[in-house]
Amino acid sequence: MLRCFQLTIRIAHGLLSCSPSRGFAFQPSQSLRKRSSCLSDPSQDKQTYCSARDVTRSSVGSGTVTLVRVQPSSDIAPISLGEYLNMEEPRSIPPRTLIAMYRNARSRGQPLSQKHLSQLIAIFGSLSLPVEFPRIKNRYVKAMGSLRKTSHWDFVNELIVEKETVGYLSNGDRYWRLCSRLAEVRAAGSDFHSKERVVSFAIADAIVQYRHIWRRTLTPDVLTPYFDALLSQESMDYVSTAVHQLCDLLDEHRHVHTGIIRIVWRVALVKPENLSDALKEKLLSTLWSRTQIPFQAIKRSRAMATHFFNHETKRHQRVPFGIRQLNATLTTPLFPFFYVSVPLPVRHWSQSILEASLSPANPLSIRWSNLSLLAFFHSISGSQSLHMPLSLDSTEFTDWHAALMTGILETVISSYPSPDDVRGLVRLLWQRWRQSPHGNKRPSFVIRAFVSACFRLAGHTKDVELCHECYRYSVRHNLFLSSGGVPSSERVQADSLMNHCVQAFLDLPGQEWATLFQSIDIQPPEAFGRQADLFIQSLVSRDPNLAHQLYKHCIRHSIPLSGETQKLLMTGLVAHRPSATISVLDHWVGDVRPLLLPILRSLGTCRLQHMEPLQAKILGSALLKHVATQKLTSHFKRPIQHCLYLFITANRAEDAVQIVDAILKHKPSYFSASFLKRLLQLLLRHRQFRLSIRLANLFGNIPPAVTNDIRETLVLGLLRGGASNLARRLAPPDMPRSHEVIARIAGFRKHPSRITVPKVPPVSRHSVTDLPSFTFAFLLVLNSARPSIPSKVLMSALSQMDPTTKTLLVNTYLNHLTRRSQRRVARNRRVFRSVVHMKDFFVQRAGFSPDRVTTSIFVKALMRSNGFDAVKVRALFDHLTRHGYPVAERWRRENNVPFGTVPLPPGYLQLSFPEGPIEFQKHCRPLYKMFIKALHRRRDVTGAKMIVGILKDEEAAYLLGKGT
């Protein structure tokens, strides 16, 4: 913080202390360059008066000025009011400090110079301006920043009075006096007599000040509050004064901006009965005289934008000539502020339309109505409704009315929730425009602008008939410009017309857009190429699926499409339909990199679990070509990993291995060893043994521990898949791990022989020293040709296991009994009885605790019986539903069960239902799929479909709960 120093100043009202700061000078164009330090509140210091040596005198300009100096400090030079007002880069000083410094100088009989008085008047006038007044730039006020909190009009008037006593008021002083009088008008009290007296005096003085400065101002917009004050009064004398002075101002100043133009529209929108014919004629004559001034091209204003940013193409594009540009062209002769660059025929046409509408040869009522319509267009906003009657009388209707009424309807259409409110008005407007006798004199730019607006209005009002009429009119008059050789500006407008046509048909209810697809066959394919590009570009952001339909239509009819359009379509479609995007890669010409990454990301985002083999072939071929020539960045890593999984499940495992091989050639460390191990396990699960060996050979420099894991995964995977010869050939002679030792003793066979089974270490020892090794050996024994050994091994080892492992192994054994019975002979009740018998045996002898998986195994054994028909399967499903298995309410029928069967007698099926929650993935989904398969085998398609629906509802509920 800066150390502050204080100065005591003798003033009439007491003591004042202030901290010095840099000042500022009155230069409106100067911007703030340096932040000032804070000043203390001058009202909180209690110091003694300063001595005479603290004040020095200096001559500034032509007058003698007292420089009020502060006491010196060790690091900041003293500052005076005169020095402060002469600073090029002002500091922040509170307004109260400036007022105190001024009054101190005045109390000593040492007034400021006229220059400094004008500066103070400008400072405090800028500080006091209301929010709705035009901003007056002042570098002193800008330096104050947040210190601007209140108005100081009384102090401004005090300064003006002093300025009058020592000299004369400048134009700037008179403007601030005008603003102070307007502030008095705004702050007048509610008492009628006192308010009328204050307002009359203030406005009279404001009129005097206005008459001194209106000719000399360079920016007439600063006088806007004056006209607002006059027009807000009830007295017509003030309104008459405002109109006459406004006309004089318009005669004097050719180029006016939004403030004065708004005043003109305000006068034009006054009720006709409230203005005399003389005032109307005065304003109309003034505006007519402005139209007779030869047009001079001026620098483009900010009234109309010429370009816009297209978010689909990521480029700035030219704004097509539309109804707003057309109405701006109509207004340009009156106010060059609305100037836009348009073709010469359009400018001549707009000049003729304006002259025909405001010509003194027309009756006063018609001219005033035309001016009011123009003012209404420029004044209305989107949140307003139509409170001004729009006349569509055929005797008075011209292109002036058509352009302005269309612009008004486009502005207010969003405020009408029901399209029926304005549908009839829009259709009548279209009919009057088409029946106009001057239709053959309209330039093509004007016609397209009006038809585009009608397309937009028809789409918003859901008017099917008007959409078709506008489309037929456009085709008949070649507004879409199917032929080439036209200027770029006209091509941009024709493309915009086509875009609005498409959007209008899309907004219609039903499939009205099909009419456009049918019309494509009439057009020559080569000529329709550009229109098809525009169609697709406009549809991508709104309806990617419909854009894809149009794309396929163009492909079938050999309609050429640009590469940019195809890329835009694929980029927009990939998030919604990645499968459709993949099919395009087969005939894609050019670099596929911009499409590959979005496709791969979309597949990963959608968590697609399966892919069609043909699509996997196309994507795999494109991806292989890309990775063979270019190095992949890290952005491809996760998406491509998920895609490799999909290739394997889609029977394109060879493509997956080739892609991994090509990537590792460029960068051996691109994939982690854990990912490659998971990929190897997936290949083994899908019985791609040769490709598994090839993938295992691609592992580069990896640690020995990882090498042993990969070798064990490969050998055991081959063994479980039945590839005994491959497993035996790849297994090294010195395999140190227990799983590999067990596999070698079992002869690397999935179904060991009767001789080798007793030699397996966990079986021969009858002990559980290594639970994973015992589990692996137990699974080999289950697949052996000696069915008596598994139960003996299991019984000898169950006492050494925890309850969870015990339940898991017994369920595995019971499930093996159902599978073994399928391989041998019968599918009957003996399967179920053997499962029940072994379950009871393990419960009594080994302390086995059945769970819901055990229940599912019992159901599986029951449905393997040949005598268990579809009716019994339905009854069994209802029985499970009654015991807590979830079913949505919409599937429950009679007896509150899906199939409506009666309850079964207790103990009829010997099924037990343990306590505990029912998990969807572990209990419901496998069991319900089992019922679906059983009903399909028994030719009960209706029952199978019902359980499919139940399963889908439960899966949706599970995913919803998992997401929350």
Architecture blueprint of SSEs:
Blueprint: E1 7-11, E2 14-18, E3 55-60, E4 63-68, H1 81-85, H2 95-107, H3 114-128, H4 139-144, H5 153-166, H6 171-186, H7 192-213, H8 224-231, H9 236-252, H10 258-268, H11 277-291, E5 307-310, E6 315-318, H12 323-331, H13 344-358, H14 364-379, H15 399-412, H16 420-434, H17 444-461, H18 464-476, H19 488-507, H20 514-520, H21 529-540, H22 544-556, H23 563-573, H24 578-584, H25 593-606, H26 613-629, H27 637-649, H28 653-666, H29 673-685, H30 689-696, H31 704-720, H32 724-730, H33 738-745, H34 761-765, H35 771-782, H36 788-798, H37 803-823, H38 829-846, H39 852-863, H40 870-882, H41 920-937, H42 941-963
Helix pairs in contact: 3-5, 3-6, 5-6, 6-7, 8-10, 9-11, 10-14, 11-13, 11-14, 12-13, 12-15, 14-15, 15-16, 15-17, 16-17, 17-18, 17-19, 19-21, 21-22, 21-23, 22-23, 25-27, 26-28, 27-28, 27-29, 29-30, 29-31, 30-31, 31-32, 33-35, 36-37, 37-38, 37-39, 38-39, 39-41, 41-42
Quick structural overview:
The chain is mostly helical.
Distance between the termini: 52 Å
Strand content: under 5%
Query: Main sheet: which strands, in order across?
Result: 1-2
- Describe the main β-sheet briefly: 2 strands, antiparallel
Structural class: mainly alpha
Number of strands: 6
Radius of gyration: 45 Å
Seen as an oligomer or otherwise, the chain set is single chain
Low-confidence stretches: 1-77, 822-826
Average pLDDT metric: 77
Give me the number of helical elements. 42
Query: What general outline do the C-alpha atoms trace?
Result: elongated
* Share in helix: 55-70%
